[in-house]
Please model this.
Amino acid sequence: MKDTQSTSWQNVAAWYDKLVGSEGHYYHQHVVLPGLLRLLDLQPENSLLDLGCGQGILSRVIAPVSAYLGIDRSKSLIEAAKAIPSPKNYSFQVFDVTRELQAAEPIFSHAAIVLALQNMEYAEGALGNAAAYLKTGGKLVIVLNHPAFRIPRQSGWDIDKKTKQQFRWENRYASPLKIPIHMLPGKDSSAVTWSFHRSLQDYFKMLKNAGFVVTDLEEWASDKASVGKASKMENRSRREFPLFMAIVAQKV
Ligand SMILES: C[S@@+](CC[C@H](N)C(=O)[O-])C[C@H]1O[C@@H](n2cnc3c(N)ncnc32)[C@H](O)[C@@H]1O
Model:
C-alpha cells in the first residue's frame, strides 16, 4: 500500500519550495511571519526547534540565535533548506516529527510548528517531541490555518440571496476529519497532501496532555483588499473571519 503520509509533501516539494522561495509566500510575508516573530520574541541567546520546517523559511527570517534545528519529513524540502547557506550552529534533519525522537534532550528555549501541525495525523507525537526538546518554561508557538473557520471542503463563502450579504458556511467542526487536498488541481492528480481537522478543544487537550499550558492565542485575518462593487462586503467578511490562529504555550 502506498504510504500517503510520507510521500504527500515529498510529491509537491519542488512546487512548495518555489512558492515559498527565500522570503516566504504571500501569507508568510504579510501575516504569518511578522506575527510569529513577534510572538516568539527570540533573543540572541535563545535556541529554536522548528518542527515541520519545510524548506527552512523560518531559519532565514529569524535574527541570529544560539542554535536552530529544523526537522521535516520531506527529504527534498530538507535538501532545499540545506542548499541555502546558513550559520554553522543551524542544522536540518529529515524525520517524521510525530515519531519519538531519539535521545531528545530538553535543550531548546523555543519551538515552532508553522502551518504544519494540521498536516500531521498523529499531532500528539509532534507536541510530545516539542515538550521533550524544550526546557521547562520554554515557549512553543503553533500557527494553524484557523481550525474554526477554515475546514477544507467543509467551509466556504456564499451570498445570501435575500439580504445580498456574504456569509461563511460551515458543515462540520466538532469531529476530527482527514481531508485530501489537491495542491495542483487540473495539473497533477498525484499532488495530494492531507489535512487533519481538529476542534479547538482537541488542540487544547492535546497541549495539556503533552505538558503545556496555553498562555496566549491570536487570530490573524488576511490583509488582502477587494476592489470593485462587492469590495465593502468582501473586505468586512475578510476581517471578520480570520485565516490563521496562533497558539502560544509554555512547557510546565
Ligand atoms: C505547509 S508546509 C509548512 C512548512 C513550513 N513550516 C513553512 O511554513 O513553510 C507543511 C510541512 O509539514 C511537513 N510535515 C508534515 N507531516 C510531517 C511529519 N509527520 N513530520 C515532519 N514533517 C511533516 C511537510 O513535509 C511540510 O514541509
